[in-house]
Structure formats: C-alpha cells, structure tokens
Amino acid sequence: LAGGIILGVALWLRHDSQTTNILYLQLGDKQAPNTFYVGIYILIAVGAVMMFVGFLGCYGAIQESQCLLGTFFTCLVILFACEVAAGIWGFVNKDQIAKDVKQFYDQAFQQAITVESETNNAKAVVKTFHETLDCCGPSSSVGVISPLWREKLCPKDSIQKNVSEFSNCHKKIDELFSGKLYLIGIAAIVVAVIMIFEMILSMVLCCGIRNSSVY
C-alpha cells in the first residue's frame, strides 16, 4: 500500500500541468532544465519496487520462509540506501532546480523583448510561463520601466492590474518548485519510516520462524 501511494504521488507530480507546461518548453535548440524530474523518476522507481517487494515479504510471511524474508530485508536495505542518497541529492540541488528554471526564463524573456524574438519561439516560451504561473515579468520593476511588452507577453488580467498587485515570475517559480520539493520530501520521510519498521519486523519474524523450527 505504501508503495502504491508513493507511486501515485510520483506520477501525479510527473504529470502535473504546471511543471509539464514549463519543463517541456524549448527555446530554439535549448531544452528547459528538467533536473526536477530526476527526483520524480527515483520516487516512481522506489514506489514500483516497493510494491513488488511488499508482495515478496507478504508471501514470505505467509509461507514462513526465512529465505524470502531475508531477501525482503535485503531489498529494503538497498531501497533505503537509494532513498537516502536521493534525499541528499535533492537537498543539495533544491535551490539549483529553481535557479536553472529562472535562468531559462530570463534568457527567453530577454530574447522576447528584442529583435531576436522574430527568429525563434522566445515569445511563445515567455507567454507559456506567464499563463501557467499567472505572473508577469521577471520582476515588478521591469513592468514599470517597460510597459509596452506587457500587452504582448503578459496575461490580459495583468494589463488591467497594478504591477505591484501582479506577482513576478521569479517568485512564482520559487513557490512552484519549493512546494513540489516539499511534497517529495514528506513522501520520502514517510517511506523511510515505513521501511525502518518493515526491516525491524521482518527480522523479528525471520528470527521467530528460525527459533520455532528448532522445536
């Protein structure tokens, strides 16, 4: 059940409309940074393997097989080690993910407000960011200095609003990925706690079966 829940959460994050709209963008020959999906794929793999290993442990307990329970314990140790490694990787890269996406947005924005936008899809990329995140420009100050591009690139609602009332896209990008990574972190902690209990209980059961077989 835990594996199924983790798999479901991971698939939901993988196909979330906001992240897919942004991370599938392509600016000329440059693809949007998709480092975020590395953590998602790890969660998907862990959830799928957990479901399989769960059946293995359940069958081993029913059959009272020390071999199956030992294999179950070994698989849990490997999964736990992988999850710890993924957690460390995520903690180290949590700020870098949003930073890379903001740099990609800034590059597209600079091209969209210059002549370069006529030779690539920079305007389409920027519009997708603005519409998906409901934001306008990399910062509020830009909107005051250059009001003309707002009519071409920003959502229609932003044109009728005061610039200070409309969030800048850097802030929205930070909020989007911090929220998603926070959810991934909670899922990882829950899985880790469940795995610890599973390892303890599987060893207790395995030792109990071995001791009972003596008599």
Automatic annotation (TrEMBL):
Assigned keywords, A-Z: Adaptive immunity, Cell membrane, Disulfide bond, Immunity, Lipid-binding, Membrane, Transmembrane, Transmembrane helix
Places the protein is found: Basolateral cell membrane; Membrane
Single GO BP term: adaptive immune response
GO CC term (a single one): basolateral plasma membrane
InterPro entries hit by this protein: Tetraspanin/Peripherin, Tetraspanin_animals, Tetraspanin_CS, Tetraspanin_EC2_sf
Pfam families xrefs: Tetraspanin
Chief place of localization: membrane
UniProt protein name: Tetraspanin
Gene this protein is translated from: Cd81
